[in-house]
Queue: 4 jobs
Job 1
Amino acid sequence: MQRLGVEMELHRAVERSEFVVRYQPLLNVAKEEMTAVEALVRWQHPTRGELLPASFLGRPSGRHVFHSISQHCASCSASAANPPTASS
């Protein structure tokens, strides 16, 4: 994709709430317990499927919309009914 096309897609993705947060537990194998939870952003692209951040944030255009993506994902996490915790 060309730079301008990616930038336009990223802006549309923010408007359409195409970014999702996936939670990944961080485990202490020796103690057999979960010590933390990591929030990972993914782009649910309408035609290319779920994209990892490296495919869009590593580009200059991705850096311009990073703040919007961060705000969107933070609001998704804050509004989750039961966000995971390290103690659950």
Job 2
Amino acid sequence: MYFNSAISDSTKLLKPVLVFAFAIAAALTGLTQITQHRSHPIDVYVGFLIGAFIAAYLVSSEMPKLTTANRRAVGYVVALESFPH
């Protein structure tokens, strides 16, 4: 959510690259914990699932608010509401 508010729309490729980089870093960290026998595999897998559920919840609950606020700030919603349905 921070990326959507801090990074402008002119850098459209930067957001997916950052998300992908953080996801790969998390996966490598978890797999390293397993291969070095620091954590049980089930602990790492459950941690991945908990993180995925939290991310899905945040995206489903907060993204509509952010996109609506961004559209209103630019004026898209006002322009679209003036057209007859």
Job 3
Amino acid sequence: MSSTPEWATARALADYETFTLSVNGEQRRVTCSDDTPLLYLLRNDFGLTGSRFGCGLGQCGACMVLLNGQPTPSCDLPVSSVDSKEILTIEGLSNDDEMSLLQQLFVAEQAAQCGFCMSGILISATALLRRRRRPDEAAVRAALDRNLCRCGTHTRVLRAVLRAVEDACPN
């Protein structure tokens, strides 16, 4: 027998809404409170665990996703603000089992140490490369400014992104 009164359960369910999310090109429906953070749904409901919970304030970049093409922290983003928008996570960057060029270059340059922040950094770098054909080092640094990495692999990350620019757009 449940210790929660029936009226309380009914009231809680009445506060839930159904949202349709486009995640990595796939339509997904979820029923939850309108203030549920997107990150919680990605990780807990959809099993997309590449985006990480870092600060919970949208400041560290570990939870970054592309929202309609723009890098956006998902840890403090309510689901009500993303209903019917295009969401791309780190899992959506690869094609089937093949990593994107940028992901391959992060591996080649050994850009990840612990890897906790890398999904957010890859998302931010991907947004930059989609927005600008040949960004210079200053533009790469600016695009990655919101992503914190405590391991200190910044030089290798920059090298990987700049290599992606050269590989994708040779002179």
Job 4
Amino acid sequence: MVRPRKTSPWTTLRLVLLSSLAAGIVALVASLSGTDAAAPVERPLVLPDLVSTFSIVAFDPETGDLGVAVQSKFLAVGPVVPFAAAGIGAVATQSFANTTFGPRGLDLLGAGTEPHAVIDILLADDPQRGLRQVAVIDASGRAANFTGDGCLAWAGGRIGDNFSVQGNILAGPEVVDAMAVTFGATAGDLATRMVAALAAGQEAGGDVRGRQSAALLVVREGGGYGGFNDRFIDLRVDDHEIPIGELQRLLDMRHAQLLGEEGARVMEDAVAASPADRTALLQQAIAAYSDATRLDPANGWHAMSLATAHLAAGDLDAAVSSAVGALQADPWIKTGILRGFGSLDVVEELLEADEFRRAWEKIQIRY
């Protein structure tokens, strides 16, 4: 395993100052000798503007999902780098990030502009284009990226089928190479594959300055809360010692939430189903709730839903075991059920079991 090399902010500042000084000396020597020199890229000396990071933009042709995942040694990278719109595309803007590239890039994609042309248009009127790093992918999986010659080394990217990976101030090209290989080799949904790519990039050395924040954005038509927007998965870790690990924990919770919703839909179908179909549907619900409980064991409502499904399937012992686990994970469930957030009928059946009754009566009601 290649471990991240620790570089202090002062070291990075010295690199920027020395680079600017060297460029100035070159220009001065050129002017004294009467020769022309290429104009140096002027870097702002306010380092907080430097969103040095590694990221992936990707598309899932099976679901139509589009997304961006990113990690950086930068506070709250989530509001800065990722932009995406369902059915249109995704943009990652980083390295002295020009955040107008996000909405403008999506507008251009929505108008039918292909990714390479989108980047050309975005950079055309940007006086600091040499400092920018940007990646664009459209809803057909076509991708493009750009790394300005003023980005701090190592900086660059790779493009593959339905994705682009890129980064700057990295340990080396092995970071984006590992991301590309891992994304292609990982099974699962788009979010799972993108977070796995981030983890591989970190394992290969990541950002030489360290790590601080991470974010994951996946868009799907009507995939947001209540179906009112397309933000299917929108998770941010603003400040954490292990941001990708924390991002994975949050993704597990989101997957558990989705499984809980799936279980609820199947339970509704089971109510109206024939006896033969009802048995199979209840087993599907039990499987969904079981996975949700495994992914997010601290959320007692998943275990309580699992208890309800077991009870509907006629398995009182399994229902009691799940329900007791639910109360242990979150004692507030008792208050919630009494306030109408759950089924009192289910509780009345469970109270016939001594184990559940003892656990239930031990909990004080919260008002």
